[in-house]
């Protein structure tokens, strides 16, 4: 009796499952008339959302921001889904043709069932994927560009000037700072120290950019230097000056930046290069060096800091070296006179100091003083300085 009952139950189960299958089958097939147009509409929406996200990723790419991996994965899944949904939609008319008896029976039952089922699943998948595609941000800002530390010999007696400049940098009212002074007085050295200090001292600047300007500068080349600092690709350099300016502006106006321009000989048009004007709002800074106070005025520098000549002895002594200075008791005194005649210009002190580093006779030192009396060393450019140096090196050899 028990056996008979269980056989009956299994048979009923079998019938029920069979019925479910037939109903499910009929459902998928019957609903094709509605699900197919719904799929077309869902496909269109997914395509539009995909295009929007892709456009945002393209903009991020142009700004050198790295798209999130989850966004890239979403895009590639969307692409696969779009292809499959297009395929289903394109087969829709043919599948509809197979239907008869009010659209509930198909001439090819199995194929229609599979098709209808896939359409229903696809609708669900597209709906799920669309809900995952509402990204607030598609890319993260690139990590703060670390400062490119520039090589520098340990400077002498520069600390107080560095502090002066640094306190201007910390002053939020000061956006543009001009460092001016004689040729060879140490402006580039000072600016280099400032650049390197950004790498070691806590600050919230996102990018520190160094560009050498010099006489008769080429705007495109300055932009290339800035582009390298920001991280633009090599091929970016082929763009026009105008386009580069737009790109540089686009990046820098979204970051708290420091631009260090070395050796300005005239006013530089910041707009032409693409450098946004530092302001209290953006908190950015522009620091430049020049030989001329007038250039500080033309650049509308909020602070103008004069780079002064050094106390000559420390640097000169360092370059000549103790061995030579101690080689005769009268040499230190003569050496001090030579150092004084260098006028506190590091460039002169270094050049002449190195030339005298191997001079150990009083005659050589006296000759040096005589030579320096005859020329106006502090006003000399490199060529003149090299001539004096060579004369000193030659002494005693002829
Ligand atoms: N404080 C210092 N201590 C040691 N060396 C220094 C110091 N200042 C400058 N020098 C050295 O003096 C030389 C000239 O300095 P720098 O190039 O900085 O001068 P500058 O003012 O930028 O000159 P220019 O106007 O020609 O650009 C460099 O060799 C530099 O290393
Ligand atoms: Mg310089």
From TrEMBL:
Ranges for domain NB-ARC: 159-325
GO biological process terms held by the UniProt record: defense response
MF (Gene Ontology): ADP binding; ATP binding
Protein keywords: ATP-binding, Coiled coil, Nucleotide-binding, Plant defense
Coiled coil: 36-63
Protein name per UniProt: NB-ARC domain-containing protein
Annotated source species: Gossypium tomentosum (Hawaiian cotton)
């Amino acid at each position: 009796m028990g056996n008979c009952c269980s056989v009956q139950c299994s048979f009923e189960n079998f019938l029920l499952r069979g019925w479910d299958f037939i109903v499910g089958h009929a459902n998928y097939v019957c609903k094709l008339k509605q699900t197919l147009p719904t799929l077309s509409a869902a496909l269109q929406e997914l395509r539009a959302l995909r295009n929007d996200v892709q456009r945002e990723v393209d903009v991020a790419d142009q700004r050198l921001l790295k798209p999130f991996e989850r966004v890239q994965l979403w895009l590639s899944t969307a692409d696969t889904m779009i292809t499959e949904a297009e395929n289903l939609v394109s087969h829709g008319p043919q599948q509809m043709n197979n239907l008869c008896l009010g659209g509930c029976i198909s001439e090819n039952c199995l194929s229609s069932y599979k098709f209808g089922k896939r359409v229903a699943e696809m609708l669900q998948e597209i709906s799920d994927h669309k809900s995952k595609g509402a990204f607030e941000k598609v890319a993260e800002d690139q990590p703060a560009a670390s400062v490119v530390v520039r090589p520098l010999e340990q400077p002498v007696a520069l600390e107080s000037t560095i502090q002066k400049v640094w306190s201007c940098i910390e002053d939020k009212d000061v956006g543009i700072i001009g460092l001016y002074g004689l040729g060879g007085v140490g402006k580039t050295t000072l600016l280099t120290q400032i650049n390197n200090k950004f790498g070691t001292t806590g600050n919230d600047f996102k990018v520190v950019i160094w560009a050498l300007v010099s006489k008769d500068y080429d705007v495109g080349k300055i932009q290339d230097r800035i582009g390298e600092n920001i991280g633009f690709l090599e091929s970016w350099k082929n763009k026009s000056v105008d386009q580069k300016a737009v790109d540089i502006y686009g990046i820098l106006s979204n970051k708290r930046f420091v631009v260090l321009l070395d050796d300005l000989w005239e006013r530089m048009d910041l707009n032409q290069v693409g450098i946004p004007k530092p302001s209290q709002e953006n908190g950015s800074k522009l620091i430049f060096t020049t030989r001329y106070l007038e250039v500080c005025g033309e650049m509308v520098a909020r602070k103008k800091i004069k780079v002064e000549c050094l106390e000559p002895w420390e640097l000169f002594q360092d370059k000549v070296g103790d061995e030579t200075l101690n080689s005769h008791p009268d040499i230190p005194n003569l050496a001090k006179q030579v150092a004084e005649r260098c006028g506190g210009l590091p460039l002169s002190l270094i050049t002449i100091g190195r030339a005298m580093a191997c001079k150990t006779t009083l005659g050589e030192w006296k000759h040096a003083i005589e030579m320096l009396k005859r020329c106006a060393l502090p006003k000399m450019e490199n060529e003149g300085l090299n001539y004096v140096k060579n004369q000193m090196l030659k002494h005693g050899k002829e």
